[in-house]
Amino acid sequence: MSRVNISKQHPDVYQQVVALSKSAEEAAAAAGLDKKLIELVKIRVSQLNGCAFCCRLHTRDAVSAGETADRLAVLPAWWESQYFSEQEQDALGLAEEVTRLSVPERTDWDNGSLNPEQVSAVSWLAVVMNSWNRVAIRSGYRVAP
């Protein structure tokens, strides 16, 4: 029994993650972050964690929000492309920093295009997305065509 759907075993805990996720989304919107950027952060964190379920889910959400196939295609190597604004690059770099927890802390993502509220909001998005990735991966959420 290596895989147990933890969201079904402890639905009350799962609902707390749902509430945390909603709060992080609201904070990101209140901080003025674009819906497409919010989804890019979620996708990038999910790529780093190898969570196919969340990659698919948030790619679909990004497309619904108006994201382009070209930008989604280069997201795994965002720093090599010219597709992303300074703010998007900062947010993606910060999300990677939160996901990887580099010690000592990296700050090469910080070019000043995110204000403190936005840094906090992106950090919370990454923290929550890391949690969701672990729920999906640990539970063995299926990803079939």
Automatic annotation (TrEMBL):
InterPro entries in UniProt: AhpD-like, AhpD_core, CMD-like
Cited Pfam families: CMD
Domain Carboxymuconolactone decarboxylase-like, first and last residues per copy: 12-97
Coiled-coil residue spans: none
UniProt xrefs under PANTHER family: 4-CARBOXYMUCONOLACTONE DECARBOXYLASE FAMILY PROTEIN (AFU_ORTHOLOGUE AFUA_6G11590), CYTOPLASMIC PROTEIN
UniProt protein name: Carboxymuconolactone decarboxylase family protein
Organism: Gulosibacter molinativorax
